[in-house]
Amino acid sequence: SHNYKIAVLPGDGIGPEVTAESVKVLNVIAQAFQYNFQFEYAKMGAEAIFETGNPLPEETLTVCKNADAVLFGAIGDPYFDNNPDAKVRPEQGLLKLRKELGLFANIRPIKTYTSLTKKSPLKKEVVDGTDIQIYRELISGIYFGEKFTDENGEYAYDVCKYSKDEIVQIAHLAFQDAQKRRKKVTLVDKANVLDTSRLWRKVVQEIAKDYPDVTLEFLFVDNAAMQMILNPKQFDVILTENMFGDIISDEASVIGGSIGLLPSASIGNDNALFEPIHGSYPQAKGKGIANPIASILSAAMLLDYLKLDVAANKLREAVEHAIDHRYVTEDLNKEQNYSTSEVGDFIVDYI
Amino acid sequence: SHNYKIAVLPGDGIGPEVTAESVKVLNVIAQAFQYNFQFEYAKMGAEAIFETGNPLPEETLTVCKNADAVLFGAIGDPYFDNNPDAKVRPEQGLLKLRKELGLFANIRPIKTYTSLTKKSPLKKEVVDGTDIQIYRELISGIYFGEKFTDENGEYAYDVCKYSKDEIVQIAHLAFQDAQKRRKKVTLVDKANVLDTSRLWRKVVQEIAKDYPDVTLEFLFVDNAAMQMILNPKQFDVILTENMFGDIISDEASVIGGSIGLLPSASIGNDNALFEPIHGSYPQAKGKGIANPIASILSAAMLLDYLKLDVAANKLREAVEHAIDHRYVTEDLNKEQNYSTSEVGDFIVDYI
Ligand SMILES: CC(C)[C@H](C(=O)O)[C@@H](O)C(=O)O
Ligand SMILES: CC(C)[C@H](C(=O)O)[C@@H](O)C(=O)O
Q1: Proximal ligand: closest to the CA of A97
Q2: Do the domain assignments include residue B189?
Q3: Does B45 lie in the same domain as B6?
Q4: Cβ–Cβ < 8 Å for A15, A280
Q5: Where along this sequence does the record place binding of Mg(2+) (chains A, B) (predicted)?
Q6: Considering only Cβ atoms within 10 Å of each terminal Cβ, which end of chain A, N or C, has fewer?
Q7: What does each C-alpha distance from A4 to A7, A36, A72, A306, B133 come to in angstroms?
Q8: Alpha-carbon distance A146 to nearest alpha carbon in chain B (angstroms)
Q9: Residues 65-84, chain A: which have Cβ within 8 Å of B?
Q10: Would you call B210 a catalytic residue per the annotation?
């Protein structure tokens, strides 16, 4: 059938503004392709804490579990960042949601648009043609291991733990994707120091045997942080654990010239969530200057996930059209630019 | 007195070649300034394992403990990297040495040479004038916490632990350095996720009160990985924990155009070790193409540490002279270049 329930969590900062554009765009997609999208809104993050004391209210979790997919905006608020003693923080909502929905793989495509490479801090010849797919493990590792701070504030610890099964499931996704691409997987780890990294290396080496057409390479995370800047074109699929994935994918996000362009998908066995890579940028909140494209491209990944490929491609085409015609927000064009909703309207009109 | 014992650990890969140039240069410094440097060589790393089974033989540790300072080359060998089951690995030698000597602060200056910025993957206007001092905690955190892999290889963990005292001692060094510089400290952490990061934030906020002339800023490590590329000039002193420091400082090392230029100092209360940031580059071993400048500038930091400031500055002047006259190895000049020892000779002649 062509009925889909989509949970919408606008979240904090610029989240609501950019998510509104995605919903607008999905509505016109629904019209054009005769789908029925039923949007159910729910709260998460700082706003949810201020209203309910809970960054992920039970109701929100239920809405997400019952949905075919979740569209999420952004999370985080300086009020909590500057208060290390806060017991409840917005990010806990997102982390709990990822865990509860079993979203074990965070997929971040890093692509450059030739017309935008002049915005990149890197030289054109270094970045042009970059096309990387990052697979970041999302519901284990140091994010979800045991945590402890003693009551006198004398010491604290965080445990990074991985099981073989956790590595296996995301590794298969990465290798399968590589088979459809340039057939190379780079495992990023710190196997010269960490036991968990050595487990990753061992398990992934084993899985690689099932994919004889794919080349497996290893890179220490410190070296990966260098190589990402020196020569991003060397990468096809990057596979890594949660914390290294957080750092390396944010680093990679600057390559194309704007983090405001980059979408992500978080995939589990029964659920999926789509969100821009960028954060909540509280400084930009309410100003109508936030770039909606990362959110709109996240909506395109949502359409992919629902196997609505034609619609997804139409949406991407519309985004490229907007970028090519310089119909963009101020992060991409200082001189002449459009507001968040004007960019959304332009994409809607094209579709 | 002007007698100094310097332990020399050439290590693996290109370590011996570049260290030989530093010793050559230190010898001519000794002549010129009437110091007496007594060099004591010792083994560490892969070579030490192949000969003795131990990456840090007891004898090496004794030599280092009795020395006024340690000059170290590089560590690591592909034989061990590709063998996740190896029980003994070269890196363990370096980690144990850092711990045994109590080298709690790893200091990495990141500076650009205007004449070399065209080698940088980043645009000239982004990097020119970058001058960062990174303080990385070096003997705690996930590197030294409890590690475990179960015998069936079903799971593994690594514990990241920090005590307040460990944070206090390096934080003071960072603030004191900032007072002599542009008076800004940026603490890089992941306080929205980790208990240890929240402890860092709390302790460092407290210490900042002793340095009212220094501004303290906080940055999540994922954002820091972006900002380092978007606008490295915004940073003065960066303070961070062990693993984040490993990643961020290697990332930062590409800014200037060659990692072959960057020295580091590892400082404790009674000992200090000086080493280039670059690794052992086994592919380049024995070819005479390795850039000796990172090691030679590490020797300059060693002279600083011994309070031989005039000699240290002379050495830096000689290095700048070599760079300005394009008397460099092939990493810095593809068309016309000199061998590792020719560059060393040029610097010796200048002094
Ligand atoms: C908000 C934060 C907890 C989150 C993370 O670290 O996973 C964010 O940085 C991301 O990458 O989605
Ligand atoms: C060799 C390795 C263990 C080491 C580290 O991670 O500390 C190196 O990368 C460094 O930064 O000195």
Answers
A1: 1
A2: yes
A3: yes
A4: yes
A5: 222, 246, 250
A6: N
A7: 10, 6, 16, 9, 53
A8: 9
A9: 76, 80-82, 84
A10: no
Residue A93 has pLDDT above 70, yes or no: yes
Beta carbons of B42 and B9 less than 8 angstroms apart: yes
Contact B322, B343 (CB under 8 A): yes
Which pLDDT belongs to residue A57? Answer: 97
Once rounded to an integer, what is the mean pLDDT over residues A166-182?
A: 98
pLDDT, tens digit, 9 for 90 and up, residues B229-280: 999 999 999 999 999 999 999 999 999 888 899 999 999 999 999 999 998 9
- Could you list the active site residues of A? 143, 190, 222, 246, 250
Q: Which amino acid is at A160?
A: C
Ligand nearest to the CA of A192: 2
Contact (CB, 8 A) for A189 and B142: no
Domain CATH code at residue A213? 3.40.718.10
Q: Give B137-178 pLDDT, tens digit per residue.
A: 999 999 999 999 999 999 999 999 999 999 999 999 999 999
User: Residue A263 domain-assigned?
Assistant: no
- Domain residues for A49? 1-103+268-351
Statement: the pTM of the whole predicted model exceeds 0.85: yes
Closest ligand 2 atom to A220 CA: 9
Angle between helices A293-305 and A340-350 (to 10 degrees): 40
Nearest alpha carbon to residue A85 among B209, B190, B199, B240: B199
CA atoms of B130 and B150, how far apart (whole Å): 46
Gyration radius from chain A CA atoms: 20
| Helix ranges (DSSP H) in chain A | 15-33, 46-52, 58-66, 78-81, 90-100, 124-127, 164-180, 195-208, 221-230, 242-252, 293-305, 309-324, 340-350
One domain, residues A201 and A60: no
- Within 8 A of A156 by CB-CB distance, chain B residues are 161-162, 195-196, 198-199
Scan for tokens 């002449």, then name that residue: A336
Confidence class for position A84, pLDDT limits 50, 70, 90: low
Out of B194, B229, B257, pick the residue that ends a domain.
B257
Measured distance CA(A262)–CA(A278) in Å, rounded: 7
Has B147 been annotated as catalytic? Answer: no
* Residue A246, marked binder: yes
| Amino acid found at B165 | D
